[in-house]
Design goal:
mainly alpha
Amino acid sequence: MAEKQSQWAALIRSEDWLAVWLGLLIIGLVLGGLTIKSPSFRWAAESEFQTLSVQALPTVEAVAKTAGEKGETALQNEALALKASIEKGDRKAVADAAKKLQEAAKGVKDSSLKKKATSLGKEVGGSASNLVGKIFASDNVMKAVYLGLGMLFLSAIALALMSVNPFKFAVGFPIVFMLALLSLFLAGNQTVRYYGLEYVLWCLIIGLFISNVIGVPKWLEPAVRTEFYIKTGLVILGANILFGEILEAGALGMIQGILVVTVIWYFTYWICKKLKLDDEFAALLSSAVSICGVSAAIATSGAIKGDPKKLSYTTSLVLICAVPMLVLQPLIAKWFGIPDEVAGAWLGGTLDTSGSVVAAGALISDTAMKVGVIVKMSQNVLIGVAAFILAVVWTYKRAEEVPGGEKPGIMEIWIRFPKFVLGFMAVSILFSFILSPAAVAASKGLLGGIRTMWFALAFMSIGLETNFREISTMGGGKPALGFLAGQGLNIIWTLILAYLIFGGYIFPVPKF
């Protein structure tokens, strides 16, 4: 009876369950109509804008010429107006002209021209309008203030239920929150985004600098809540991992995704064990390499209750490897004449973020970019499946370690099972099969921004509570070796699969 009572009490006392309730509450508020707008962090310096504009001129001229040949006079005029604005170097005029170009593209009959003009207007217009001053404008600042106050209020209630002093938490939270905002600001730069240097990296850099150089003051420590932030963010992440996207991704993308994840996960795990790494580290590295980098590492760490230091190490490896891969893989694809469909599938299966897949694919062609996104989407869907399987396996393993030598019972496994995984899966099912497509589309952006903020707090906390020497010396270089070995096979194996599946060897070459 006492055990049952303790389990009932855990529903409102344990970190796992409170993360579930908090995540579900936030999702419920958004679905109920509460608009929680996230602040904007995208910006481009004047020199970056000028460089992009000059590089875009040939494309603008090509759109104008093609529009004239096809009798699309309105589009031709707007393209010529954009060309004139770029040549004058007037940033506001460029932004206005790019917007008009996108409007004119809506009425274009030729699908290829329409897509090219829309993409051009969006890219140039975004660079022109993303001024640094907009980030510090009063309305954008107030969005950050409201978001921070809401997260502080909800977190303080949850932590109070966990017997954590909410007032001590409230003292340090604003600082952790502002440091997280700083990391998002740095990651929002146009050039930084292009090279895939995500906010996660900046969170770790800033946090590690403070903890190792300046020192974390005692009053700030109660607000450094890595596990709580990660678990809450993961529950909300379920809204973006849609099983329905399997159909959108297509059968070929799903086949490649399953074969990549399965083979690379087990190979990396095997290599890590040969290098004498523990099961936890091996699982984190394997998920990061095989599925989709940082998000998979976060989900895996939560599912197996991993060490935040190991998660920090793993994500650092992912981000360090991302930059050379983003630059080199498109160059290799062009150099060896790899077909666009195959190149896109290769990028989607190896690069660890959707943003890097889009950027690398765009360096090759629109087709490569589209195929890459489809394959990446397929692998992203597997995050939830992998997290659930790992949670079950790890829970059983840990339960077996209970003194007494007997096999663990169902109740023991339930007690040890990470409950937030259930919340993650429940939310994913809700958004995949129950809510209307309109409701999903309307809430996806809002929830994505909120989730990013929870993860930013989590990674800032990891940096603040980690000693850099511990990370740099962790495993004596063996984790990095295991990761690189897994990534090496990933690049080769995925290219082989891309040729077989998208190159016409087994299935007809898909039309995009």
